[in-house]
Specification:
α1 (25-64) crosses α5 and α2 runs antiparallel to α3 (90-99). By secondary structure, the protein is mainly α. The protein has helices spanning 25-64, 67-80, 90-99, 106-116, 137-150, 153-164, 174-183, 190-200, 210-218; strands at residues 87-88, 118-119, 133-136, 171-172, 208-209.
């Protein structure tokens, strides 16, 4: 009879070590990190899309302005950007907007700076309150484009009327036309200036009133 030693004994196996083992948490951690990274990327892409859309709309607004209006905005900024750093502070913004026909209260100008401005470098870094808000040219251009486009065309016409009407008489007379023609370098003689008054003077008082001037410009 063959000895049982011919068959080697079964090796002892440990089965208990695999039971109750927790799942590998590194997989969940990696998945969570991947999801978080994707969310951040989606947010970045959304911000980029919003920025491009904003720039497109701003460009469309500026394209609606005439070349003369765009030049006026640029000239007003450059005139009052006293230190020529392509940024203007509260006082410079106030007079630049006034030059373009917008006289705003202090609170509204401060609101514009808080919404669109950036802080300057304080002369003394140890005194933070010395910094002030500055408005860059690009933001100024966008803000003024929006305001000009939203303005009633009658306001523009009345601004032009006031340039003619010296002394705020409420009427443009022959003397006013003579002065403006001289300032613009137009070589118009007296008969031509008189003919201009006669053509648009509907009530026959020898001058052009606000209403008559408005009718001329809107017809």
């Amino acid at each position: 009879m063959a000895s049982s030693s011919a068959h080697p004994p079964f090796s002892s196996r440990s089965y208990g070590g695999n039971f109750g083992k927790l799942p590998d948490r590194s997989l969940g951690t990696a998945f969570g990190a991947s999801t978080s990274q994707q969310q951040r990327e989606n947010q970045r892409l959304e911000r980029e899309r919003e920025r491009l859309e904003k720039e497109r709309m701003e460009q469309e607004e500026q394209n609606q302005l005439s070349e003369e209006q765009r030049e006026e905005i640029k000239e007003a900024f450059m005139l009052f950007d006293l230190d020529k750093d392509q940024k203007i502070d509260y006082h410079e913004l106030k007079v630049a907007m006034k030059a373009l026909g917008f006289e705003l209260p202090k609170a509204e100008i401060l609101s514009i700076l808080q919404a669109h401005g950036s802080p300057s470098e304080p002369p003394n870094p140890s005194i933070p309150h010395q910094s002030r808000l500055l408005l860059p040219f690009a933001q100024f251009q966008t803000i003024m484009s929006q305001r000009i486009l939203a303005r009633d065309p009658r306001e523009e016409i009345m601004r032009a009327f006031e340039l003619f009407d010296e002394g705020a008489k409420g009427k443009i007379n022959l003397q006013d036309l003579r002065r403006v023609a001289r300032e613009l370098g137009e070589g118009l003689d007296e008969d031509e200036l008189t003919a201009m008054i006669d053509e648009f003077d509907l009530d026959g008082d020898g001058a052009i009133s606000r209403e008559e001037f408005l009718g001329i410009c809107l017809q």
